[in-house]
Write a structure and sequence with these properties.
The strands form 13 sheets. This protein has a 22-stranded antiparallel barrel. Strands 1, 4, 7, 8, 9, 10 and 51 form a 7-stranded mixed β-sheet that branches. A hairpin with a 2-residue loop joins strand 36 and strand 37 (656-679). The protein is mainly beta. It folds into 4 domains: 180-462 and 578-907, Beta Barrel (Maltoporin, Chain A), CATH 2.40.170; 924-986, 434 Repressor (Amino-terminal Domain) (Orthogonal Bundle), CATH 1.10.260; 991-1087, Rossmann fold (3-Layer(aba) Sandwich); 1091-1135, no CATH class.
């Protein structure tokens, strides 16, 4: 299959207006451990991002691995609506949709086995919960706080099937004490309509509900240029919702209950069938638009429901935190489709003849996956002395029903296949621990260990159906009509799974037909299979009255009906060997580990790490072996060991804050598993370790093609990744990431050339060497960069972001386009090379000063270039069959998000931000060498670091004697908490913002500042000043609060009297106090000096000196104190008769 990544879509759009009660993103919490995603700013000015890729809160720049963080706001600005759209935003990351399944490849490590027996190589999580099957998860991409991608094996912390890395999609969690209502409308070309809504409702001071909803509709991204005018693939009608309830039952106990459901309908993904153009020497790059296709039969139908429920209980003990998570995921994927005939190319109409037969071919397939999985995890984590640690137990259980069947209309020798597996069970249990020891204030050593035990079993049937219908002179063979209007497979309603009903060891024609009919719920209106077998099977000597009417389904073949109009014979091909009951099981266990050393060096970080990961082994379909007994070939788990060294640093170039990170890595990839489409005979030959040519007499026309997995090779992957950024003058921000990647097979067994099938091309379906071949999905050079800017205008802020990605050439199969038979003139059908490409995305937005309205527009793939995201090269026919799948387009759009208005200037500070490689865990503030550390206080008091933090922050639920011990240690060591560390630990910054509008009133402002600063010193707070000489707007105030993450604001007059500002602060949940407001509101804290009495006292004093001609300067007319002081002055004059 081929997938084209993107195409340019342009549409002039007029969008929406919006109204909201509050800003949903600003005070929310992503649903995993991190409470707020508003980034802080490092002292050098480069943005800090707090992530949880290692299961605890850490600064991404201080994390000793390579990781990416994509904020939901940034993604939406660029039109990213699905997790697969992340591929072009980060080097080394490829996420593709392959027939509805999401495949993740990271630095060339991944898996293409999407059957019920397969497992992914990159672990995908939603809200921290492992997803074994990802179909439908794209529509859960709403109300998202961020997406985290951890690069490299995560065997210790994430465990199951995380050899490539892990992806965690983290939604916003309920905001306590916040009432919010938000709505977003988006439009785009292809008649795209998107609606998103969020409601956050507090039910008490310590509890809240959050409900988010989503709806997306768009027409097909394909265009049927044929005579039928069908709607083809990639039309969508999707919706979803998420409900969460959060309660902080006590200061120690927190409970989160959540449920989500998505429903995807539309036309799914068929790909583009390149058999016709390739068979006529037409190169894919010569086709103007591979989405202009000739469709046949009927419009594909997709119906996917994916829902889940989760409970997360967290309890904070003095020595550690306990977290228990239980979740159920339920996926039902059902896709019924017919693939298109060909893309449009000059001359194709002459090939698709005769029209009435070609376009009236109802060959079809249906794919059903029903997966129910349970995940439970019990995790302890904390800090004890110099140790930071995490340990836990993980349990996973999945039960699947899977069904894949095809019906061959008008086909010769082929009437379909059926893979019907009613019960596939998987179970995984693991225990793990990860520990970091602080050798001193600048050096840390991390080591982790995880033991995993897995089991898998399956029962079901595989079958290939092939009929032999005789024509004139007993020639063979004619086809049947099958799959026409009204046809339905039985699927789950099948009742027969053992074709040998009488148990005599053979399958008779009658038993075969009974089994076949049991798999069909309803034949189509024009199907004739029942008519053909009305009298059962018969041979050439059958009586005339036992024969059935002959139908010639194809005019352009060598089959002709006999003169009497009756089939000369009706037979079944290989009835005794074409149906195979399935019985397979597997058990294995493995140990994963990691070791890392980190050291702070002059404000930078250096690290070295070794980590491992395993992907579970398994078994293949059951075949009948040479002994006549069933065989289910197995394969072992694959292992990746990664060695990585890195350097992370923030610094200034003159006055420009800058960042530069670098990492070098080497992957030792052993027992790598490949998955190929092979005939049963090829698979048996492969399993036996043979390297000889498959004997064509062993294959025959009835060969069943299966997905076959095997340990094929040992590979190596190595390279260098660089990333950095600059904060330039005038609000410009530039960020970039570059990757050099080498990935090749080092040692491999010869493998079957799965691009050919033995029953069609037996001289090419042979074992070939793949030593030295480049791994698929590994462009050698990759680059991403973005530039963004926020520009203040009188009505608000205009911001934009432009992101550019470049990928070098790459291959889609391990054969790297090699034609072994014709190396000097390779056939086009074997070309799996994807030429290098550039992608450009752009977004622009406007935020109004009232803080309640925003309008955005975006263009995805500005250049309009397309490229293949996935390929399946199948066996050759006379035209060279090669179907292909294209990636989902991202439309040009414009929207009005009045929910995600968190702070556009900050949000766009690094544009697309493809991510940043990381450094060490823990807050540097806790290792402040200028004084005692919190760890030293904990050791002196004999308690945990968390307990010290609770005492210092004056939190309740600490025993009095414990509090006294901690306070004594604080006093003895003269410990002063670092504000940044307190902010990371307690979700507070311990800072106060003060806004003032009249800096020329120096004496007044100076005294105000002195008093505020003195008060902050006594409470351990930091005072941040914001002069507003350019004028004050609600948006400016909100941006200052969000950028600095202050705990509250002090508003001086006349800012304190601005109703638009105070209303915005109330709606946004930002705390504030007023200084000298004109009319104090009893609901808000305020400080009000008696200005009238001050004016009276001043005048009394002047009059007492004998003065009678007195001038009075009233001050700023908007300053409430001015009127009051004037009133006191006039009152004094009146009182003295002046």
């Amino acid at each position: 299959m081929k997938a084209i990544r993107k195409a340019k879509i342009v549409n002039p759009l007029a969008l929406c207006l919006l109204a909201t009660a509050a800003l949903p993103g600003a005070g929310q919490e992503p649903a995993e451990e991190l409470d707020e995603q508003e980034p802080a700013t490092a002292s050098g000015g480069i943005e800090e991002v707090i992530v949880t890729v290692e299961r605890r809160e850490q600064n991404l720049q201080d994390l000793g691995v390579t990781a990416y963080n994509f904020e939901g706001e940034d993604l939406k600005m660029q039109g990213v609506q699905d997790v697969t759209d992340l591929s072009e935003l980060a080097p080394g990351l490829e996420i593709g949709n392959k027939g509805g399944n999401v495949e993740v490849w990271i630095r060339g490590v991944g898996s293409s086995n999407n059957t019920e027996l397969g497992d992914p190589a990159a672990a995908t999580h939603l809200d921290g919960v492992y997803l074994p099957r990802t179909a439908g998860i794209g529509s859960a991409f709403f109300d998202i706080g961020r997406v985290e991608v951890n690069v490299g094996p995560q065997g210790t912390l994430r465990g199951r099937n995380a050899t490539a890395g892990s992806v965690n999609i983290i939604p916003w969690r309920p905001g306590l004490g916040r009432r919010e209502l938000a709505l977003e409308i988006e439009g785009g070309d292809y008649n795209q309509r998107v609606y998103r809504g969020v409601v956050n409702i507090p039910v008490a001071d310590n509890a809240a509900f959050r409900v988010a909803g989503y709806s997306l509709e768009h027409d097909s991204y394909y265009n049927d240029v044929g005579p039928l005018g069908l709607e083809t693939a990639e039309a969508a009608d999707n919706n979803g919702y998420r409900i969460q309830f959060l309660i902080d039952a006590t200061e120690r106990l927190s409970i989160l209950i959540s449920g989500d459901s998505v429903h995807e309908q539309g036309t799914g993904w068929t790909g583009t069938n390149y058999a016709n153009p390739l068979g006529n020497d037409v190169r894919p790059e010569d086709i103007d638009d591979p989405r202009d296709v000739y469709a046949r039969a009927f419009t594909p139908r997709l119906d996917t429901t994916h829902w889940g429920a989760k409970i997360e209980v967290t309890y904070d003990f003095d020595l550690a935190t306990l977290e228990y998570t239980a979740s159920r995921r339920d996926l039902l994927y059902n896709y019924d489709a017919a693939t298109p005939l060909s893309p449009d190319w000059l001359g194709v109409a002459d090939e698709l003849q005769p029209v009435d037969e070609v376009f009236d071919n109802w060959s079809r397939f249906q794919f059903i996956t029903d997966s129910v999985s349970w995940v439970q995890e019990l995790r302890f984590f904390g800090d004890t002395g110099p140790w930071s640690w995490t340990g836990g137990l993980f349990w996973f259980d999945e039960n699947q029903y899977t069904f894949l069947a095809s019906a061959g209309d008008r086909g010769l020798f082929f009437q379909g296949t059926e893979f019907n597996q009613p019960d596939t069970d998987s179970n995984s249990t693991s225990v793990y621990g990860d520990f970091t020891y602080h050798l001193d204030d600048v050096t840390r050593l991390t080591f982790g260990l995880r033991f995993t035990a897995e089991e898998k079993s399956r029962v079901g049937i595989n079958a290939r159906y092939a009929f032999a219908l005789g024509g004139r002179g007993f020639s063979c063979c004619g086809g049947v009509r099958l799959g026409t209007e009204g046809f339905r497979f039985a699927a789950r309603d099948r009742t027969i799974f053992e074709p040998d009903a009488n148990g005599d060891g053979t399958v008779s024609d009658e038993e075969y037909l009974a089994f076949y009919y049991d798999g069909i719920a309803q034949f189509g209106a024009r199907d004739n299979v029942e008519a053909v077998f009305a009298n059962g099977t018969y041979g050439g000597g059958a009586a005339q009255e036992d024969k059935v009417p002959c139908v010639d389904t194809l005019n352009q073949d060598d089959f002709y009906c006999p003169p009497d109009g009756l089939f000369s014979f009706v037979a079944i091909i290989n009835p005794n060997s074409s149906i195979t009951p399935q019985f397979g099981e597997m058990e294995n266990n493995f140990l994963d580990w990691r070791v890392r050393v980190e050291r702070d060096i002059g404000g930078a970080l250096g690290y070295f790490m070794i980590s491992t990961g395993h992907k579970s082994g398994g078994f293949n379909d059951t075949f009948t072996g040479e002994t006549g007994l069933p065989v289910a070939p197995t394969y072992d788990e694959e292992q990746v060991v990664v060695y990585e060294a890195g350097w992370k640093s923030d610094f200034d170039i003159g006055t420009v804050p800058a960042r530069f990170n670098a990492s070098a890595f080497y992957y030792d990839y052993t027992d790598q598993v490949f998955t190929s489409l092979l005939s049963v005979e090829q698979a048996l030959n492969f399993s036996a370790g043979g390297v000889s040519l498959v004997d064509p007499t062993d294959t025959g026309a009835g060969s069943l093609v299966v997905s076959f997995s095997y340990n094929a090779a040992d590979s190596e992957i190595y390279g260098v990744q660089l990333d950095g950024g600059f904060q330039l003058p005038m609000g410009f921000n530039v960020n970039w990431t570059a990757l050099w990647l080498e990935a090749s097979i080092q040692k491999a067994l010869p493998i079957q050339d799965f691009r050919f099938q033995a029953d069609v091309a037996p001289d090419e379906a042979v074992f070939r060497s793949i030593d030295g071949r480049r791994l698929p999905h590994t462009p050698k050079y990759q680059l991403n960069a973005s530039i963004s800017q926020a520009i203040a205008i009188p009505w608000g802020i205009v911001d934009y972001v432009v992101s550019i990605g470049w990928r070098d050439d790459q291959f889609r199969t391990i054969f790297n386009s090699m034609d072994f038979m014709y190396p000097d003139n390779p056939r086009l059908r074997l070309n799996d090379k994807v030429e290098g490409f550039v992608s450009v995305d752009a977004g622009v937005g406007f935020s109004h000063n009232n803080g309640r309205m925003r309008v955005e527009g975006f263009v995805s793939n500005v250049t309009g270039d397309v490229h293949e995201a996935a390929q399946i090269i199948t066996q050759p026919s006379t035209s060279g069959r090669r179907p292909g799948e294209l990636p989902v387009r991202r439309p040009v759009g414009q929207d009005g998000p009045w929910t995600w208005l968190q702070n556009m200037a900050r949000r766009l500070s690094d544009g697309a931000r493809p991510g940043a490689s990381a450094t060490h865990p823990g807050s540097p503030a806790d290792r402040d060498s200028r004084g005692a550390t919190i760890r030293e206080v904990a050791e002196r008091a004999g308690v945990s670091i968390k307990t010290v933090s609770r005492v210092v922050n004056n939190e309740p639920n600490v025993r009095p004697q414990t509090r006294e011990k901690v306070l004594a240690a604080v006093a003895e060591l003269d410990y002063e908490p670092h504000p940044a560390a307190r902010g990371l630990a307690g979700r507070r910054t311990f800072s106060i913002g003060l806004l003032y509008e009249n800096p020329h009133e120096f004496s007044y402002i100076q005294r105000l500042l002195e008093g505020a600063h003195s008060a902050c010193q006594t409470t351990g707070h930091v005072l941040l000043l914001r002069p507003c000489t350019e004028g004050v707007t609600p948006l400016l105030v909100r941006q200052f609060a969000r950028q600095t993450r202050v705990d509250g604001l002090l508003l001086t007059a006349p800012i304190a009297d601005r109703e638009d500002i105070t209303s915005m602060l109330v709606d946004s949940g930002i705390g504030f106090a007023q200084i000298s407001p004109r009319e104090p509101n009893p609901a808000w804290p305020s400080v009000c000096p008696d200005d009238e009495q001050a004016g009276r006292a001043l005048t009394d004093h002047v009059l007492s000196q004998g003065h009678r001609r007195i001038g009075f300067i009233t001050g700023h007319p908007q300053h409430g104190a001015s009127d009051k002081r004037l009133a006191g002055h006039l009152g004094s004059l009146l009182e003295h008769g002046v």
